[in-house]
Design goal:
6-stranded parallel beta sheet; about 400 residues; alpha/beta; Rossmann fold; about 45% helix; 7-stranded parallel beta sheet
Length: about 400
């Protein structure tokens, strides 16, 4: 079966959740399917990574994406119905390239994210699977709500409205849909009642995190992990340091907070001004951060979809404290394989419990690892996507 996969990023190196997901799915399904990958890149430096993807893909073709603040994107979003997010990826040359490629008898189109969908030629009778890693309009809506420059808010709210309308439009246009979690599935099903929506959760490379370890409460190192290009991670880090950390530090003055993640902004780097707070930015191997930490604290308040940092922490036997949104898409049980709270007080209290109760920490670590190894390994996730491919491609 021949599949054309379209992604808004090159799925290698594994720097973001989307890259981790696409790379591992391609890797696991490549022995069964002929996968042609069309991806957007941001700079020519990424070309060196094509060779890694060619190990698993029949063909890899990349297209230079316009920079976010390119005047053409602003004009497109201002003068057409398209939102800014779609304008960045809108390309006549990409659409023509896809049209030419589809002429060679493809069985299925797999599109990651709705905002690459406008590049698909019309009409096409090839079944299309649209996978939504998050519900974008909800992410940007929260960003606009917290935006400080009130004069620009009406324009931003209008752009969010356009994102919402186009996102739902392409849900309707796809042959079949996939979400990362049951809650996202329910939101999508309400908008498109005549489309089947599957849940294809995110996973973790369990072999990569096989080193056994048990978090020691005496260590009292709290870890936060996140790529700071993603707006919800910025919000969570600031919420953690401003509202949660002082409560923990007051009760446990020896405790340390360690913030790790790619692309830290000056605002994130400035968080290290707080006592016992360290901001490291990117680390060479995230497994080392997990091994040196007692608990992962993920106070996520925005952004849907499964959080890789939570899965990786569990695979590394690090206890996790998070919100309902932070554990979304993961079948973890509160008080058994994770501790869940919503407020700053609640998140601080749960974290203190893990740091001071060795038995609780060990129970969370063991149950979390068992859950991830049984349900969220990439082999199992790939089998779920394989079934969808068979049903769509066979039709």
């Amino acid at each position: 079966m021949k599949i054309l996969m379209l992604t808004p990023y090159l799925p290698y190196p594994l720097h973001s959740g989307g890259q981790i997901r696409s790379y591992n799915l391609i890797k696991n399904l490549s022995q069964k399917y002929q996968i042609t990958l069309f991806s957007f890149i941001r700079s020519a430096k990424e070309l060196v990574h094509i060779a890694e993807l060619e190990k698993y893909c029949t063909k890899v073709k990349v297209f230079k994406r316009r920079q976010a603040w390119d005047p053409r994107n602003i004009l497109i979003s201002a003068l057409t119905p398209y939102p800014f997010l779609v304008a960045i990826y809108l390309s006549k040359s990409v659409k023509n390239a896809i049209r030419r490629e589809l002429a060679s008898n493809y069985d299925l189109i797999h599109a990651e994210t709705f905002y690459v969908m406008p590049n698909l030629p019309k009409p096409t009778n090839i079944p299309t699977l649209l996978v939504e890693q998050t519900i974008e309009y909800m992410v940007y809506q929260r960003f606009v709500e917290d935006f400080k420059f009130f004069l620009l808010k009406p324009l931003l709210y209008f752009d969010v409205l356009k994102i919402k309308l186009w996102e739902k439009y392409f849900w309707q246009k796809a042959t079949r849909l996939a979400a990362m979690s049951q809650s996202d599935k329910q939101i999508m099903e309400k908008s498109v009642k005549d489309r089947k929506v599957d849940v294809v959760a995110n996973g973790v490379d369990v072999e990569h995190f096989t080193e056994s370890r048990i978090a020691k409460a005496v260590n009292q190192t709290i870890l936060f992990v996140g790529n700071f290009k993603w707006l919800p991670n910025k919000d969570a880090a600031k919420f953690l340091v401003t509202d949660i950390w002082p409560k923990i530090h007051q009760q446990l003055p020896r405790a340390k907070l360690w913030i790790v993640g790619r692309n830290p902004t000056s605002e994130i780097l400035d968080l290290s001004n707080q006592k016992n707070v360290t901001v490291s930015g990117e680390v060479d191997d995230i497994r080392e951060a997990f091994q040196k930490s007692s608990v992962l604290l993920a106070p996520i308040r925005n952004g849907r979809g499964t959080k890789y940092k939570v899965l990786e922490a569990m695979a590394s036997q690090v206890p996790v404290v998070t919100t309902k949104l932070g554990i979304e898409g993961i079948a973890a049980i509160n008080q058994s394989s994770v501790l869940i709270a919503e407020t700053a007080d609640g998140l601080a209290d749960k974290t203190i419990q893990v740091l001071t109760d060795k038995n609780l920490a060990e129970k969370l670590a063991a149950n979390g690892k068992k859950l991830v190894y049984n349900q969220y390994n990439w082999q199992a996730i790939s089998k779920e996507l394989d079934q969808i491919y068979q049903q769509l491609g066979g039709a």
